[in-house]
Design goal:
homodimer, 184 residues, mainly alpha, Arc Repressor Mutant, subunit A, three-stranded antiparallel β-sheet, 61% helix, 8% strand, elongated, DNA-binding
Amino acid sequence: MTTLGYAILGLLSRETLSGYDLTRRMGEQVGYFWSARHSQVYPELARLEAEGYVTHSVVEQRERPDKKVYEITGTGLAALREWVTEPARPRPTRDELVLKAYSVWLADPAEAARLFREAASRHEGQLERYEEIEGWMKREWAEDLGRPGSPRFASYATLRRGLGYEREYAAWCRWLADALEGIR
Amino acid sequence: MTTLGYAILGLLSRETLSGYDLTRRMGEQVGYFWSARHSQVYPELARLEAEGYVTHSVVEQRERPDKKVYEITGTGLAALREWVTEPARPRPTRDELVLKAYSVWLADPAEAARLFREAASRHEGQLERYEEIEGWMKREWAEDLGRPGSPRFASYATLRRGLGYEREYAAWCRWLADALEGIR
DNA sequence: GTACGTTATGTAAATTTTTACATATACTAG
DNA sequence: CTAGTATATGTAAAAATTTACATAACGTAC
């Protein structure tokens, strides 16, 4: 099983979804920790089905093209549950912007500062979107956020990671932009 | 040009290095923002040389096998300098541990808490190593850390990113482990 | 009625990355 | 003297990911 397979099972353990829906989730809810294009999702669904982790049924629609709705099987749920507590082998972090920072001494400081200020804005924007979701969760899901057995708790946990990640990233970009412009 | 190519040029803009040295750097200094195996480094060096970004000379050694020492060319340096301030297209963040957190509601909370506490320890360990380097840099490189035109400033900038990343990641792991064990 | 956007599902090709295969020198520890 | 480790450089195969190709139904705006 691939990590992408577990990403898909993780989504299907919460609700039934089509390949199209899954692809959208990969760029939204799950987007800040895993992602995939539809060209990866469809073949992976076929593989998961061949191995008995999911099944599908065709849903005919009147106002839209028909779709295949996928559902996780007992086997799939068991595999997912087991995978969760298995230690993850550390994958290398790759970040092109930090790589640029490593060679920033070669660039014009003012031009470079612009680059990092723009990045700061992007991460602050994402942070604000996450903060809105957090506010919404705390209002609507209040009781569930303390229950480790609830999927809402898990959603909140990953959101917390997104919040921390964006906050820290934005602060670093601002610090670097300031330093490049000689602001102490 | 690939991002890996710029990663290599970024290292060669500071010092001449062999393919073997470059591979080690990819797992150390540059490790917390880019990495590559030697099977990627050697072919990439050949490509960079074919395109005129680097040159090499064979250095004969008595106590070790001979090596090819690579040097960046004027063309290479110009390309690197230009790349630094070009906006980086955002790549998706993929993190298996956060993906596991998304499905943590299916697992035994105590077992899951163990997983995240172990991860917290790993990130705290890395943080400590970075903090030691930071202390060393502040002592030894004090004058350079305020000069955006110095490679030491750039090294410090990337280290700052590593520090923030590990600190935030470790805190999140601890928070999640606590929450899983019902600690408010 | 036609151009565009959304929904919907796939395949093909290219690129990137990882894992495995392959070889060779020289030092050190047992 | 032999096994292991570090240095040193490559290639081959597999896996993962991205980009491009390809099609089709249906609704809306012009």
